[in-house]
Amino acid sequence: MNDVILNSGHSAETIGLPRIAGEVCGLLFMTDGPLSLDEIAEALKVSKASVSTNVRLLERLRFVRRGDVREGKRDYYVFAGNVWEVTGDQLRTTGQEMIQGLLHNAREWHGRLADMPKPSDPKAAASLAKVSDRMANLEQLYEMISNLMGALCAERKLSPAAMTHLWKAAIQYRKLVGKG
To answer: 20 to 30 Å CA-CA from 20: which of 9, 95, 169, 180?
Structure first.
């Protein structure tokens, strides 16, 4: 169990979340039943204030939710449910916003390259053409990812079958661009 909690903390850091948020998520994932802020703080050996801050973040991200109240006015928390649904929710929100931003930027940069005057020097012209090709490939990649994510969002869930489809599409794309 400790390995899952520690790995959850490291995984959270790799995607820009606080380590403790990942550890809280890992603890709740591995726990059968709701835990209070005090119980989480004690299990992770961190302050209750830190747990409270990170639980609020995890609630906003829909990784955790308030569980059934066992006693008094304390709030208890549980992992939000099905791993596929939680991950799918994240892709639908954060992932979709991120890829749309990247696609917008790639289109803008590609447009700027196309509008640049063609250099008279053959070496500079060849270099600009290579950069333009790379930018076109980047734009195609982001469009493909956007389309795949759109399909996943339309399905409203990220199932193992959808994940398999996503990997197959990525492999297909790599073959198309000569990387597979």
So the answer is: 95
Going by the DSSP 8-state scheme, the letter that residue 66 receives in this structure is E
Residue with tokens 């073959």: 175
92 CB-near residues (< 8 Å, 6+ apart): 149, 152, 153, 156
116 vs 64, 107, 131, 132, CA distance in Å? 49, 14, 12, 10
Q: Look up the pTM and report it.
A: 0.56
DSSP string, 119-174: PSSHHHHHHHHHHHHHHHHHHHHHHHHHHHHHHHHHHTS--HHHHHHHHHHHHHHH
Do 99 and 146 form a contact (C-beta atoms < 8 A)?
yes
What are the residues whose beta carbons fall under 8 Å from the beta carbon of 95, sequence distance 6 or more?
Answer: 149
Q: How far apart are CA 115 and CA 22, in angstroms?
A: 45
